Amino acid sequence: MGENMTDVLLRVENLHVSVGDTPIIQGISLEIKRGEIHAIMGRNGAGKSTLANVVMGHPAYEVTSGTIHYKGQNIDDMEVFERARAGMFLSFQYPAAIPGDQVGTFLRKSVASVRGEAPSPRAFRKELNEAMKQLDMDKSFLSRYVNDGFSGGEKKRLEILQMLLLQPDLALLDETDSGLDIDALRIVADGINAVAEDTGCMIITHYQRLLDLVRPNFVHVLIDGKIVQSGGPDLAIKLEKEGYDWVDALV
Ligand SMILES: Nc1ncnc2c1ncn2[C@@H]1O[C@H](COP(=O)(O)OP(=O)(O)O)[C@@H](O)[C@H]1O
Ligand SMILES: [Mg+2]
Question: Domains in the chain, please, with CATH?
Answer without folding.
Answer: 36-48+86-248 (3.40.50.300)
